[in-house]
């Protein structure tokens, strides 16, 4: 295949995934379609964590094994028209570009399989379920052995606010520590005319919301970034009945590990205060640590990208993203690096943020990401 053939293949893969999105741990068709592609290329398949799997191309026992990750899940949304193709599955849409990530990985796999005699590494592609919504597909795959035998691991996320043809990365912190929480508060209902006979869950939810905000002003160095964002509050059944139940949902984010520990500690203290006040409070909290790129692997990636894209197109001075990503768990297991792949085109107005609806991307980025992966494998 020539370069144009790889480009066409990657775009075809992306458009298939974009039209057939599936939510986390339900990526059954996505999984089957991807496995079929890998098997045609000569990769061996190992099932791993619900709908996840990894695909291996073994070259030589004396070579190291390099892993590349692609996340598979879509977001729970109905896509608006605007992209070149549109989701055919109501209630699911690739508004974060995971369809691009899978297309990059499959295109890279095709390049590697057709040039396997020149490879200087054994190859493993990690097709990971449930990255979105803090469901921890990476952690689940690691627990089931996907990193056994791996020497280095690389991952990417597209970014339409970076022009196609550029990438962004840096050694060290690349994303925030992030936790997503759901608080269920139970009090005691009473008539609105006799509030002293009840225990108002709505008022307690509002108290917590305000106290969460004050944690940052009272306990965090103003020179350090920190967020506690309460984004959902549900309570009440009638205008003359005190709310027996209330629910709060939101997220906690920071870049500094010690700051995150401070936020979490005071957050838990406020929940304990609610319990002391007589409320029953249940907490469901899930999170990802910050992505922390390893120095040597990051430098290798920077040099590889500079040789391919030109020094001016490898951005190393961008701040970490405030969002979170569970690729961080892979980097806690093995050395590696994560980068942002430009998928925008400011000249054509393609600079929408992730999770936009519709989510517009420059598909030319697929071959760029795939070629970078191939070069990291020694091609």
TrEMBL record:
Pfam families referenced in this protein's UniProt entry, alphabetically: M20_dimer (PF07687), Peptidase_M20 (PF01546)
Keyword Hydrolase set for record: yes
Note describing how the cofactor binds: The Mn(2+) ion enhances activity.
Residues where Mn(2+) binds: 96, 98, 132, 157, 355
Cross-referenced CDD domains: M20_Acy1
Location of the Peptidase M20 dimerisation domain: 180-269
Domain of life: Bacteria
Record keywords: Hydrolase, Manganese, Metal-binding
Cofactor(s) it depends on: Mn(2+)
The protein, known as: Amidohydrolase
């Amino acid at each position: 295949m020539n370069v144009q053939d790889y480009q066409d293949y990657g775009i075809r893969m992306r458009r298939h995934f974009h039209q057939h999105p599936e939510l986390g741990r339900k990526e059954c068709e996505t999984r089957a379609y991807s496995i079929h592609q890998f098997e045609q290329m000569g990769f061996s398949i190992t099932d791993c964590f619900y709908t996840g799997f990894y695909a291996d191309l073994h070259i030589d026992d004396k070579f190291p094994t390099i892993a590349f990750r692609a996340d598979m899940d879509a977001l729970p949304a109905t896509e608006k028209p605007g992209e070149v193709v549109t989701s055919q599955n109501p209630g699911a849409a690739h508004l974060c570009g995971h369809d691009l990530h899978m297309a990059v990985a499959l295109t890279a796999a095709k390049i590697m399989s057709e040039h396997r005699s020149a490879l200087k590494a054994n190859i493993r592609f990690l097709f990971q379920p449930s990255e979105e919504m803090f469901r921890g597909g990476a952690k689940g795959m690691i627990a089931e052995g996907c990193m056994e035998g791996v020497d280095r691991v690389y991952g990417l996320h597209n970014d339409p606010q970076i022009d196609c043809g550029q990438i962004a990365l840096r050694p060290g912190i690349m994303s925030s520590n992030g936790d997503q929480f759901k608080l269920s508060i139970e009090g005691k209902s009473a008539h609105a005319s006799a509030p002293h006979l009840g225990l108002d869950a709505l008022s307690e939810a509002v108290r917590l919301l305000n106290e969460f905000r004050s944690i940052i002003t009272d306990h965090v160095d103003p020179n350090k970034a920190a967020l506690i964002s309460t984004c959902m509050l549900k309570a009440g059944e009638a205008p003359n009945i005190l709310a027996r139940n209330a629910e709060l949902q939101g997220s906690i984010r920071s870049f500094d590990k010690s700051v995150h520990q401070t936020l979490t500690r005071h957050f838990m203290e406020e929940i304990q205060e609610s319990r002391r006040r007589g409320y029953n409070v249940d907490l469901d909290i899930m999170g990802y640590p910050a992505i922390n790129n390893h120095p040597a692997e990051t430098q290798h990636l920077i040099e590889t990208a500079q040789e391919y894209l030109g020094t001016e197109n490898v951005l190393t001075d961008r701040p970490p993203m405030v969002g979170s990503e569970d690729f961080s768990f892979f980097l806690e297991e093995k050395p590696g690096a994560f980068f942002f792949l430009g998928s925008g085109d400011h000249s054509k107005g393609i600079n929408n943020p992730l999770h936009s609806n519709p989510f517009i991307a420059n598909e030319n980025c697929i071959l760029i990401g795939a070629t970078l992966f191939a070069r990291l494998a020694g091609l």
